[in-house]
Amino acid sequence: MVDDPLLKKISRRTALALPLGLAASSGTIYNGFAKADEPVRGGTMVMIVQPEPSTLAHYAVTAGNIPPIATQIYEGLVTYDWDQNPQPNLATSWEIAPDGKSITFKLREGVVFHNGKPFTSADVQFSFMEILKKYHPFAPLLLAELTGVDTPDEKTAVLLLANPAPYLMKALAGRDLPIMCKSVFEGTQILQNPSANKPIGTGPFKFGQWDRGQFVRLDRNEKYWKPGLPYLDHIIARFIPDAATRSAALETGEAHFAGYSAVNYADLARMKTNPMLDTTMKGYEMTPALSVLELNAKHPPLDKKEVRQAIAYAIDRKVILRDVMYGYGKPATGPLSSLFKTVGFYTDDVRKYDVPDRLDIANKLLDGAGLPRGANGMRFGMHLEVNSFGEQWLRQAEYLKQALAIVGIDLTLRSEDTATWLRRVYTDYDYDINEPFLSQGVDPVYGLNKQYLTSQIRKGVTFVNDSFYANPEFDGILNEAMREPDHDKRAVLYKKAQQILAEDCPLVWLIDVQYVSVFNRKLHDHTTGPLGTQQAFERAWLET
């Protein structure tokens, strides 16, 4: 329990003023901009998270607005350096068997959970086999080969694999596969466990308070296993639905950090003129994402490939990049982010949809599909579900309505709160076209498999195959690629997979998303690795 009297006085009426009050009480309102030489201990960092998460149980829900909070609390076996190489964390070392079918981890001594329980191999075993393997939405991919976890002693955990899983070492941070406390969950219904929204981990910050609709407060873990860390006393994750108010909170110093483009792209140019603020595009190297359209193939005429292709041809991605993203990002060429080019997995040798005669092609495809224009010039009508994660997605939806009208498709825009939107699309399948942005992870297994494998048509699971794409040849290629230890052979397989998808067009790929973080210059060491906002702010500090 925190004794700060300001924290005890929080109410919904005063919540919007909370960060400013906390900042004043902890010495984070500044008159100058001289950089301190050494980290300063204490203070309260206020970060904007948009929108408010529905839960903090990111072992069961993978929405991108959960990890900025949850990874302050939960940790993984490893973390990653800027070259995306695994580095010790809860595990001090590891050894991959020559046949690739086991990984032996030596665990760190002296780590305790926030409830005082010591961290042991039993927690690793329970986390992987009883929680992550059973409930993590991407477990059928990330942990498909995991058959068991041996615990020869309290500080050794051995992941046993049916086949080599070359991607697994890229997914062992707290963001993807967090380690939970066995004693908290054992004997309970995992998904109903109260720690879902009052999480208990080993991380640098402990859960303090969640005032729904306003903020989550995290408090310094005074028993954190990294000596001297964290520097901050508190982190406030503040929820501000209105875009203008989010920007104002940063410009007035009431908030110190906003990641994952919580600030509208339209406001970034103005932000850059504010001497108190700065921006960075670092910290997203392991979280590439694509803005896409999901097309429900169960709703005619989207079951016809020609119609899906026509939609892809009708859209000018350069307009979206210019008018919606304000130049942040690049037009997508296919189903894999161009960031994978550096490791040889990306190819643009696919069907091209951004071509000069794209509108002529779109109209011919629709005519050929037996969809003539009516008296009003429209061929058919559909609903477009507007992404609820920010105003830029509404602007994109408005452009899409105009673009598709040119080829005779009449879109009706439907905007709902996040929970209703996700339920409508991924549980009820009551949608025609959806406009999410999809994380691609650090390996194509994460981005391609979850979105396009037939096995990933999983009712009620968010951000998986809700377009009902099913192609046995494609499934075979991806299943082979995920087990292939030879990098060059994997690259050949993924090139073929991208070509098949671009031809079948189960989704429409719009923009390679470039996230931007806005921060107060008094906040230092906030982005210390390629997971950026989705890893702990253990080294972040505020100047006095």
TrEMBL record:
Transmembrane segments: none annotated. Pfam families: SBP_bac_5. One of its GO terms (molecular function) is peptide transmembrane transporter activity. Its main location: periplasm. GO terms for cellular component: ATP-binding cassette (ABC) transporter complex; outer membrane-bounded periplasmic space. Residues 86-433 form the Solute-binding protein family domain. One of its GO terms (biological process) is peptide transport. InterPro entries: Peptide/Ni-bd (IPR030678), SBP_5 (IPR039424), SBP_5_dom (IPR000914). The keyword Cytoplasm does not apply. It is found in: Periplasm. Keywords: Signal. PANTHER family: D,D-DIPEPTIDE-BINDING PERIPLASMIC PROTEIN DDPA-RELATED, PERIPLASMIC BINDING COMPONENT OF ABC TRANSPORTER. Belongs to the bacterial solute-binding protein 5 family. This is Peptide/nickel transport system substrate-binding protein. It comes from Bradyrhizobium lablabi. The lineage of its organism: Bacteria, Pseudomonadati, Pseudomonadota, Alphaproteobacteria, Hyphomicrobiales.
